[in-house]
Amino acid sequence: MALHIDRINAIAMDFFYILPNQKSAIGIEISQGGYGYEEQEEVYVFPSGATTDALLITNNNVFNIGLAYRYDLKTQGAFIPYLQARTGVSTFKSDIALQDRNEFITSSCPKPLEEEVLSSDAALYLGAGVGARLDLQTIFKKLKQDVLFLDFSVSYNYGTNIAYMSLNNPQRNLNTGSEVENINIQFASEAEPDIILEQDAGDIYSNPLQLVDFKIGLGINIPKTE
Fold this sequence. Notes:
By secondary structure, this protein is mainly beta.
């Protein structure tokens, strides 16, 4: 997948419940991110000689939700390494908007000539990784112990086949092992409403989900109430 898409940047929230043995925890992982936003100016010329200026906007988003199991390799100390396994669903969605530069809904909002979801697909995945938590009380002495910590991890996720949009525009004859489908959209302009124009929207690739996930974040340990 790295041959076709850029690095995914995402915001994640994890919720874990520590089991009574103190070394294991189960939880939910949720993340929302994107790997490509592009704006491209286009000028279309009609047979009559009329022209229309358009802005082509492509947006690619990823949403993940899953269950996770974490096993701490030790229970005491400021630095706690752990192992982690996860399973869940990953959704890739790409949409496109073609905005007319000459027609406006409001003074600052161009009128869309066409809005379309180019691709929306989901895959099941399994993952495994390693990580560690650093108790911030070792740095900020006024903090209570085992309350606020820095968490960082790396994991590998492998899943079922998924279709996704690419903005990298690799050569279509490149042998990458992925299925490729070229997508075109049709639209009409206010300048010539009876003439249908066509725009190349890009390529959609399909292959098994394969992602290396790097995380760094801030965690809070909420004590149990008696």
